[in-house]
Amino acid sequence: MKKTALLVILSLAALLAQSAWATISFTASPSAQAVNPGGTFDVTFSLNITTNTGTDPSSLAGIDLFLEGATPQNGANLDNLFAITTQTVNIGPNWSAAGPGIYPDDLNAGNSSHLGFVQNLGDQAASANSTAAVKTTPFSGAVETLTLSVAVGTPAGTYDFSTTDPATSGLARGSHVTDSIGSYFTPDSQATFSITVVPEPATWSLLGLGGLSSFGLTFLRARRKS
Question: How far apart are CA 106 and CA 110, in angstroms?
Answer without folding.
Answer: 10
